[in-house]
Every structure is written in C-alpha cells, then in structure tokens.
Amino acid sequence: EIESNYERLFDMESSYLAASGYSRNRDAMLFRERAVLIISKYAQCDNFPLIPYLATYYFDRYMSKKNPVLDYPRYKQHEIDVIAITCLILAWKMQNLNFTTTKFLVERPDLTEITAEQLVTMEIRIVKELDWYMRPITAFCFVPYFCQKLESKYGFRPRTIC
Amino acid sequence: MEKYKRDGVIGKERNSLRQIHKYRRQGSSGGSVVVKRFMLQPKLDALSTRDEEASADPEETGVPIKTLRQISLLKVMQHENIVRLVEMNYEDGDSLVRLVFEYADMDLRNFLEEYAAKASDQKLVKKLLCQLLRGVAHFHSIGAAHGALNPKNVLIDIGNENLKILNIAMDADALYTAPELLLGSTESSPAADMFAVGCIFAEMVNRRPLFQGKAANINNIFNLLGTPTEENWPGKLSEVFPNLEPHGLDLISKLLCLDPSKRIKACAALKHDYFKDLILLR
C-alpha cells in the first residue's frame, strides 16, 4: 500500500512540474534569468521568499508547457516581462486576500510599459495553461509541519538560508 | 452544455442569488452532474447586475482572488469521498468558466426519506459516517475547510453505498452551523465542519434533523447541549439517541462539543472506538 501511495504522489507531482527539457534549453535559460531579475526586483515583499518562489515556479511551468522548446527565440523581452509580472501577481493573489493589481501598479510607478489590460489577458492565459494547479506540492508544503515540531521541542524559529 | 439537460435545483450559491442546478447527462451513459460557473474577469456592466461579481472589489482586476483560490483548491481535491471535477469549459472569450462535477444517485436527505428501511441499518450508518469523516479529513489535511456541510451536500450512490461530499461554495444551512459561528465568528473552520458532521451523524441515526426549526437556532442548541457541564451531556444525549450504542454516543458528544478547541478532529474521530467493528472497504 505504501508503494501505491508513492506512485499516486508521483503521478500527481507531474502535474506540478515544469516540462522536461526546459532546464537544459539555452533560450529558456536566458529568459528565466530575465524573469528572475524582474520578479526579485518587483516582489518587494520583505523577507518573505514564498512570493518570489511561487512566481518563479509559475513562470517555469508556464514557459515550459506553453511552448514547444524550439519556439523560445520568438519571445521578446517585453513579453517575458509581462509574463514574469503576471506570475508575481498570481503569487500575491494566492498568498494575500487583500491584494489588488491596481495598488500593485501604483506602488511600482516605473512599470510604465505594462498595462492592466495586458496583465488581465496574461493572467487568464497562465492559469489556463497551468490548468489551475496553483498550489505546488513541494518541500515548502512541509515547512510549517516541521517548524511546529522543532519549535515545541527545541525552540527553533523558521529561517531561510538565502 | 448541450450534452446535459437541467434536472432540478440543488441549492443556492454562497453570497449570491444564483441557484445551482443539477443536470442529467444525455445519451447512454446517463448519470447526473452539477455545474458551477465562475467569472474570470469582472464584466463591464457588472455594476448594473445583481450578481456576486458586482459586489467584488472594484479595484480588483483579472481573475478574482477567491475564484483563483477556490478552483486551485478544487483541482487538488482528489479523494474517493469527494465529488470529482469532470470537466472545465471556458466560455465568452475566456471570461467565464464552468466547472462540471459528477453527482451521485441522490443526496443524503433524499436517501433518509426515500430509503427509510435501508437507512435505518445502524451498520450502514457507521459505514457512511466513516466515509464522511474520511472526506472531511482530506479537506482538513490540505489546510481547507468545507464550510457548508449538510445533508444536501452529502451524496450517496445507492448501489455501492458510497458517499461523496459536494464542495461548491453553497449557502450554509443554519441548522448545521456550529455555535461559535452562530455567535458571530465569521470564519468557517475545520472545527465547525466537525460540528456539522455531528449534526449529520445525529440525523442518520434518528432519520430527522437534530435541530429543527426555521431560524438559526442557538437556543435549540443550548437546550440540548447547552449550559450544562460537559459531564452531564451524555445523559441528555442518550435520551435523544435511545438506539445508539455507547461508543456512538461518546463520538456524537465529542463532535457536538460546544468549545471548538476541544471538539474532536476528523483524523481522531476516524480512530474512535465506534468504528472498531467496521470492516472496510479500502
């Protein structure tokens, strides 16, 4: 029975992973670099790494699933920026019930090249492509569980390594 | 939606005037489904309609946060005791999505009424309660709560006696609402779900709702469970459930515990002695 549980977990996990080949594609790497820059610049979330983590995770999955690997060169930097910012907005929406895109844009006045309309269109495109699998099954899911164990016994506090 | 034909109303959406319909599948496969629609972007004319979306934050653009969270939660709800999401259809240029869920033969309320003889089998009650708790435990294990458990949201397949929980943000029924929610707490919680499980268990045992009456009835709850101390509850409960075995009485008193922090949790309830003699059924 344990084996079948593992099998089920791995079956499910594949819905939550970037498509294979993505991590070795040179063009994809360049775009990912740009996206990580954009996401870390605009996340502005005070030591709370879950938001940029989620955003990058959505970006990887969207880029790897949306396009056949050969298709990467056709992307322009502006498009990558819109995708990255949209992923960031989706991450915020998953984490904060009071988030609004309008406020997000007001607080980041240098994002002049990106309009709310572009973001709305891209949001729907991304959630459709990710098939609404927005809650990753990763080691992150287990952090609260282990923190709780550690805290009660040894008095540790959660802390990130980066 | 051409493959389906409307087949009655099963409830009303939470915070909305919209009704939720059941549909019968056309063709040889038969079976019923429930359809729930979500707006993916606020309509321009939303302010002039009376839809739920109209009351959404006007600052909110793109996919509404609640929709994003709810659908992504539904995607991970894969469990044998929770209804399955069978398809998603995008419409109106992707501004609307319809989620289609499988339905079962009937809801628990109808089952208790129409199959009175079968439903009075206490072994079956135990089997159904166990399945209900498994489904609820699955919700709670991923950090969610159902929020509106009641016999209309609990579905039964007669042939194999399988139970499935329907989870589509319907209006909560006041008769199954935990006392802390009636007293002003607004957040639905796992503990509140467990109180509802207690009410449903009671209804299966006696084949009538535990708390009857028109209003959300805190007085009824206190009349039964109320101000008395915890020690004397089982005494009163045993009068209400004369045919229930002692382990069942103990479990029901733990499910209906007034203090949400002391109320039994789903995973603990599954290990309760009441289920000791249940042969399952993986």
Automatic annotation (TrEMBL), chain B:
Protein EC: 2.7.11.22
Q: Any idea where the Protein kinase domain is?
A: 4-275
Could you tell me which PROSITE patterns the record lists for this protein? Answer: PROTEIN_KINASE_DOM
UniProt entry keywords in alphabetical sequence: ATP-binding, Cell cycle, Cell division, Kinase, Mitosis, Nucleotide-binding, Phosphoprotein, Serine/threonine-protein kinase, Transferase
Mind listing the GO molecular function terms for this protein? ATP binding; cyclin binding; cyclin-dependent protein serine/threonine kinase activity
A Gene Ontology term for the protein's cellular component: nucleus
Q: Which InterPro entries does the record cross-reference, listed alphabetically?
A: CDK, Kinase-like_dom_sf, Prot_kinase_dom
Q: Which Gene Ontology biological process is one annotated for this entry? A: regulation of gene expression
Catalytic activity, as annotated: L-threonyl-[protein] + ATP = O-phospho-L-threonyl-[protein] + ADP + H(+); L-seryl-[protein] + ATP = O-phospho-L-seryl-[protein] + ADP + H(+)
Reply yes or no: does the keyword Cell cycle apply: yes
Which Pfam families is this protein grouped with?
Pkinase
Q: What class of enzyme is it?
A: transferase
Q: What is the lineage of its organism?
A: Eukaryota, Viridiplantae, Streptophyta, Embryophyta, Tracheophyta
Species this chain originates from: Morus notabilis
Q: Write out the similarity annotation.
A: Belongs to the protein kinase superfamily. CMGC Ser/Thr protein kinase family. CDC2/CDKX subfamily.
Protein name listed in UniProt: cyclin-dependent kinase
